[in-house]
Structure formats: structure tokens, C-alpha cells
């Protein structure tokens, strides 16, 4: 028996409809969780606030992954267990903490805020709270003000030590002869351009924290491959595109521009990070209040180091 064939246009229409419904069903499965995004965390450590940071994003249709920063150290990858009653949890191996157990985090979502408890690898439990991290996207290019010199002569008039001071000011050089306190500017800054020169002995380690929250690594890195924990990196987040370090004992320079979250780093005349977004705070930050101005912080607790010709040009 002869059957009249279906018009080609109608057949294509049916196929298109099936494909569209299939795509819609898949996209519906990937609806974002309210936990997704970046969160600035404050941890109550024995009555004192300590900074943390959390980023959550989806992988596929049902899996939540991300990164977590806890007080010290770098961002660590996480896999999040998220339940239907707006609670979540994850566990990660220890990094710089004391103890050998996993670091465990439990929390709950309440609108645009988080709260929960954290159990350290040595078994101590601390409460914590979180708020959504600000975007910090600027709508216009900054207008730069007057440069401010932060090193001069034999005084540290622009700085104070966090703890017992081991820093010495001598002929315009800030010198930390041994591990000790960090050095922090009295003044706080928002967007800025920064020039800084540093000299580090073999095997030592320091860093410059922008707004006191984002660490630019200062390490003895000559001859190494670029890495997240070596010179030119935003520690744990942004890797330089080449290693520009000089030999240990030689003076290096950074020229850094920070606008919102966007950073450019020129190391010894080479642009090693160009207009990259810093996702969140580095371990060891002064706080997690990313929307606020912050000081410069020079790390002095990881070994001897010298700094000179520190000049900051704030945005008006």
C-alpha cells in the first residue's frame, strides 16, 4: 500500500522541538544553588575575629565544588555536600594547621548570609559567619593623586608592627633581620599604584599584602617555574606568566596597580600578571572586609628581608 510521505519541513520541525525540549530539561537541571558565589568569612577564634573566604560553583548538574581559605595558607579545593534544607558541609585535609584530621566546615544559608561552625584538624571548634563578597567592579578609570613615599631616612613614621617590632629603618631601607612581626601602614588605601623594591636572602620568604588582604609573593625564586606560591604570584590564586626573579641578595622591583579586584604586576620590568581578577583574600589577611580600604602589610614572620623605595599613588 502506498503511504503519502510527511513533508520535510514538518519532519524538521518535530526534530527541532524534541531537541529544544531536551535542552530545556538539561538547563533546568543545572539551576544555581543559593550557595553559589563568593563569600567573605569571619571566624570567631576564641573571641577574636579571623578572616576566611569561600567560593562555590556548580560542576555538571548536581555537584558543587569550589575553594576555601581558612585564616592562614592558600585557597584549597573543596567538594560541597548541599542538602535541601539550605545546610551544607565539606571537609579538606590540613594545610598549615596543627593536627592530622580533616578541617571540617558546616554551615547554613539564610538569604544573603551564611553561618556555621568549623572544626580544626586538632579538634577545636569555632563559630563563623559569612556575607556575599563584593564585586568591586569599577565603572570608570581612576584619577591618580599624589605619590606618597613610605620609606625615608632612618624612621618608620608611616608604619607600625603587629607585635614586638624587629624591623629597623636605616638609610631609607626597612630591614627585618629575622622572623618576627608583620609591618603595617597607619594609612588605608582603596585603589592605587605601588612601587616597591625588595631584597631577600637565599631561601627566605616574605610578601606584600595589598589592602592588607591580597598577598603578592616575595620569595627566592630564581630559576624556578612560575607557581602560585612563588615570586610574582598572588598567593594561591594568580600565577605569573614567567619567572622574573633575580638572584638571592639582589634588589628586585614590583610595580603593581590595583583597581577594585583587578591587578597588574610588573616584576623587574616584565608584566607577569595583566589585568587579572583576584578572586578573594589570601590566608594571613588582616580581615575579610573586601569592600573597605585597607593598609599595606609587609610580611615579616617568614624570614629576613629588606624593602626600600616604597611609593604608593592612591586614586583620588
UniProtKB/TrEMBL annotation:
Annotated ranges, domain 3-keto-alpha-glucoside-1,2-lyase/3-keto-2-hydroxy-glucal hydratase: 148-312
Lineage start: Bacteria, Pseudomonadati, Bacteroidota, Cytophagia, Cytophagales
Keyword Lyase in annotation: no
Record-linked Gene3D superfamilies: Exo-inulinase, domain 1
Annotated InterPro entries: AL/BT2_dom
One GO molecular-function entry: hydrolase activity
Residues in the signal sequence: 1-30
The protein, known as: 3-keto-alpha-glucoside-1,2-lyase/3-keto-2-hydroxy-glucal hydratase domain-containing protein
Superkingdom, taxonomy of origin: Bacteria
Entry keywords, A to Z: Signal
Keyword Transmembrane: no
Species: Siphonobacter aquaeclarae
Any Pfam family hit: 3keto-disac_hyd
Amino acid at each position: 500500500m502506498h503511504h503519502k510521505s510527511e513533508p520535510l519541513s514538518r519532519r524538521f520541525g518535530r526534530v527541532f522541538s524534541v531537541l529544544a525540549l531536551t535542552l530545556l530539561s538539561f538547563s533546568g537541571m543545572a539551576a544555581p544553588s543559593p550557595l553559589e558565589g563568593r563569600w567573605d568569612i569571619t571566624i570567631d577564634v576564641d573571641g577574636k575575629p579571623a578572616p576566611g573566604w569561600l567560593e562555590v560553583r556548580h560542576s555538571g548538574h548536581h555537584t558543587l565544588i569550589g575553594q576555601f581559605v581558612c585564616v592562614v595558607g592558600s585557597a584549597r579545593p573543596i567538594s560541597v555536600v548541599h542538602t535541601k534544607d539550605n545546610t551544607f558541609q565539606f571537609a579538606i585535609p590540613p594545610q598549615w594547621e596543627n593536627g592530622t584530621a580533616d578541617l571540617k566546615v558546616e554551615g547554613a544559608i539564610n538569604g544573603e548570609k551564611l553561618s556555621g561552625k568549623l572544626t580544626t584538624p586538632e579538634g577545636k571548634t569555632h563559630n563563623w559567619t559569612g556575607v556575599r563578597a563584593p564585586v568591586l567592579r569599577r565603572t570608570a578609570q581612576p584619577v591618580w593623586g599624589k605619590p606618597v613615599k613610605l620609606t625615608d631616612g632612618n624612621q618608620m613614621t608611616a608604619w607600625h608592627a603587629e607585635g614586638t617590632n624587629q624591623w629597623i629603618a636605616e638609610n631609607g631601607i626597612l630591614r627585618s633581620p629575622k622572623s618576627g612581626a608583620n609591618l603595617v601602614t597607619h594609612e588605608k588605601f582603596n585603589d592605587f599604584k605601588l612601587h616597591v623594591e625588595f631584597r631577600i636572602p637565599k631561601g627566605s620568604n616574605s610578601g606584600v599584602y595589598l589592602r592588607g588582604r591580597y598577598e603578592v609573593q616575595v620569595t627566592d625564586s630564581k630559576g624556578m617555574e612560575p607557581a602560585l606560591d612563588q615570586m610574582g604570584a598572588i598567593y594561591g590564586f594568580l600565577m605569573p606568566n614567567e619567572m622574573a626573579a633575580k638572584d638571592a641578595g639582589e634588589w628586585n622591583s614590583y610595580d603593581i596597580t590595583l583597581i577594585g579586584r583587578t591587578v597588574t604586576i610588573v616584576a623587574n620590568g616584565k608584566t607577569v600578571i595583566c589585568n587579572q581578577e583576584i578572586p578573594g583574600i589570601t590566608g594571613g589577611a588582616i580581615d575579610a572586609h573586601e569592600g573597605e580600604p585597607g593598609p599595606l602589610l609587609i610580611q615579616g614572620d617568614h624570614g629576613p628581608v629588606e624593602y626600600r623605595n616604597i611609593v604608593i599613588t592612591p586614586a583620588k
